[in-house]
Amino acid sequence: MGSHHSLELISDLAQVDQLLEWFNSLCPATVPSSDWLGLQLALVEAFTNAVRHAHRDRPQETPIHIELWVSDQEVELHLWDWGQPFDLESRIRALPHKIAPDSEGGRGLKLLANIADELHYERMTDGRNRLTLRKNL
Asked: Does Nucleotide-binding show up as a keyword for this record (predicted)?
């Protein structure tokens, strides 16, 4: 038995505060705080990537849909965007083992991969992309 929550935001970095407020209001006592903080960081990174990269050429009103599933065994995050799809696994494999602090990019994907026990990005039949991040508890 678990719980399911969803939120839809526009593609605007100013929405991060609302995202964090929503996410943190849902933290169950059964999830270790270190895991929840890691998931919070991953969610903000995923949302920021969707705004900055997937939706960079789209109107600010373009929605980003987020779902959160929480059970005693795992937490699963889904984030849908309307950008051009890309091969997440190849991008992560192509990243250098160590990323320079002054690097323009790459840290976010590495961060997501390090926090998640499972990480997937796929094109859906409705034209959206879904990022799935699963963390085992």
From this structure: yes
For the record, the structure tokens of 126 come out as 């409705």
Amino acid present at 103 = S
CATH classification at residue 46: 3.30.565.10
Q: For residue 55, what pLDDT is reported? A: 97
* Residue 88: predicted pLDDT: 84
Phi, psi of 122 (to 5 degrees): -140, 150
Paired residues of 136 in beta bridges: 74
Structure tokens at 96: 């250098």
Domain with 49 in it? 2-136
Q: Which of 83, 57, 124, 103 is nearest to 132 (CA)?
A: 124
Q: How many domains does the chain have?
A: 1
What is the 3-class SS of the chain, one letter each residue? Answer: CEEEEEEEEECCHHHHHHHHHHHHCCCCCCCCHHHHHHHHHHHHHHHHHHHHHHCCCCCCCCEEEEEEEEECCEEEEEEEECCCCCCHHHHHHHCCCCCCCCCCCCHHHHHHHHHCCEEEEEECCCCCEEEEEEEEC
